[in-house]
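re: ur question from yesterday

yeah so i grabbed the chain u mentioned. its 172 aa long if i counted rite. heres the sequnce exactly as i have it in my notes:
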Amino acid sequence: MNHKFYTGVGSRDTPDEILTLMTVIARKAYSEGLWLWSGGAEGADTAFEQGAGDHKQIFLPWPGFGRKHGRIPHINDVPGPTEEAEAMAPLHHPAWDKCNESGRLLHSRNCHQVLGLSLKCRTSGLICWTRRGKIVGGTGQALRIATDYSVPVLNLAIPKDLDEVLRWLKAA
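ran it thru and got these structure tokens back, copy pasting raw so excuse formatting
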């Protein structure tokens, strides 16, 4: 694929108004020809996916992930992290030894959300929401990887980042 990608992720606890905004962001990105990289989780991932149309590549931690909350499988779904992502993920996680197998797969797929399937093609930017704008949870893993690879990040919980996104949406 020779597309320009952005990453859309965030907490499962993302407020409803921000989830709505994420879907609007994804629709605007779709209209500009951008493709979404995300992870199929309930909340922010799903909100971005709903707006991305068929311009998306969803990296799942395992086959069938997300179906319990009604996620419909998509042709561009990737059903699990590669061995390379599983080797890379511990390098970006502060407490890898405390993660169970499911947690490790979830964190490993975050490598793909930022660096693509090959782990050699970084995203153009990462848009997310985390509580108080902190680097926490599964989204924290994606944020650490983005930081390590100099990927621009916009966290919708941070007022200046939210303002930047709203200005982009209003620009016609």
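noticed a couple things. The mean pLDDT is 95. also The chain has one domain: 5-170.
anyway ttyl
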